[in-house]
Amino acid sequence: MLRGRWAFSIVVAIxxxxxxxxxPAAEMAVSQYGRVTATLPWxxxxxxxxxxxxxxxxxxxxxxxxxGTTLRNMLASDLPYGEVATxxxxxxxxxxxxxxxxxxxxxxxxxxxxxxxxxxxxxxxQDLSGRKxxxxxxxxxxxxxxxxxxxxxxxxxxxxxxxxxxxxGGLTLLDAGGIDAAPLxxxxxxxxxxxxxxxxxxxxxxxxxxxxxxxxxKKFAREHPDTLRKLIAVHRKGADYIYANxxxxxxxxxxxxxxxxxxxxxxxxxxxGYKGEWSPGGFDPEALSKMSDGLQLIxxxxxxxxxxxxxxxxxxxxxxxxxx
Length: 324
Known about the structure:
Blueprint: H1 4-20, E1 27-31, H2 40-48, H3 50-53, E2 60-64, H4 68-76, E3 81-85, H5 86-94, E4 99-106, E5 113-116, E6 132-135, H6 141-152, E7 160-163, H7 167-176, E8 182-184, H8 188-191, E9 197-201, H9 202-205, E10 212-217, H10 218-223, H11 225-244, H12 246-256, H13 261-267, H14 285-297, H15 307-310
Parallel strand pairs: 1-2, 1-3, 6-7
Antiparallel strand pairs: 3-10, 4-10, 5-8, 5-9
């Protein structure tokens, strides 16, 4: 259970939202927006006017480092709906917050890889025995992935996981010799292949996992069900647009992520082949099960997650609803 300053600040934020009452929507919080590729549907929605087409007013998307930061932004915003890591959503629910999961945003973990210094003797996961491997933040998706991978390789008690504070912090520690491996994502992963040695891609070990979800408060869901359905529809339309319009999706990605369009075109096409990188919104029981396994490894669940207790599918279109 979460305690202390983080939980207190969340409670203060949610009380503030309740006191303010309904207000015209202007901002929406999305974890790692403009940083991780899975958030691209929202960039497409902003660029292509999908919010306005659904009759929802969103003028700005607030990014965050993830976890409590994004939830605080969401609860303090005019529109208490956001996109966060599944682990962060469940932690908030267990702490007693008025949060419910309403849609899947991504159940493919993309290109994230564990890398080492190319001058080191580390070529495979077994070479990390007795060494340190980084992840971004405690209870984060990157910690969950690392611990799942170590378990799969029988290395759980042989490697020391270290929180680095983010992807950039991990690379800084790796370069300084403070850790022996770190998680890495694009564009550096592809554009600078000689700078770091890939030990393995997490998706090769964990092809399906519901790691990013849409959440809201139960209060907002009760009082604004139609708005919630429209927001989920916006995300689905954004995802569909990406798969149907590759060149334009690349252009939008390059613009919002502030990357060179020609460079993006060299590595981005692989994402179109990742099943579930941008989810239409429904829940995949197999992908949820893998997330449950990982949550147990990071101490966020004492047993299999009871998904029926934390997910509300009524805001999804009928074609996306399925037994959990």
